[in-house]
Amino acid sequence: MFSRDSFADAENGKGGHNLYGQHPVMLIKEDSDQWHTFFYRTANPMDVTLNTNNAPYSSRFQVVGGIIDLKIFLSSSGPEEATTLYHKYIGGWVTMPFWGFGFHQCRWGYRNIAAMRQVVKKYKENDIPPV
């Protein structure tokens, strides 16, 4: 995972740049029915591999370098407590606005004005309201 938001890279028309971020968090259930939240934060590129093919299952986090923040939140009751402990650490969560759950059309990725006009035409043909 390596994410960044760079307006100039998005507007250069070449594509191939990552404009979004990640938040590597896992909710883990042990065989003993104990639940934990695992938060692995770094500003450096990271590769995450999950082995779910055969037991014992495993996760591998490989980081290029730099500072790593590893937080494990241990729960004594269940997934709700493990999640609550994590949310308290990060300062809560953002409640999405109602309009944010609807249809969205990204403005990035159009190679030219003709491609954008084709999308607008298809919106009209399929009675999709403009956003």
Structural notes for this entry:
This protein has 3 helices and 5 strands; from the N terminus they run αβββββαα. β3 and β4 form a beta hairpin. The model has no long low-confidence stretch (mean pLDDT 80). 22% of the residues lie in helices and 24% in strands. With 131 residues, it is of the alpha+beta class.
- The chain-level structural class is alpha+beta
Integer-rounded radius of gyration: 20 Å
Percent of residues in helices comes to 10-25%
In the sheet with the most strands, the strands line up as: 1-2-5
Low-confidence stretches: none
How many individual β-strands? 5
Shape: elongated
Query: What is the H-and-E element order?
Result: HEEEEEHH
Mean pLDDT: 80
> How many helices does DSSP assign?
3
Strand content: 15-25%
Q: What composes the largest sheet?
A: 3 strands, antiparallel
- The N- to C-terminal Cα distance equals 31 Å
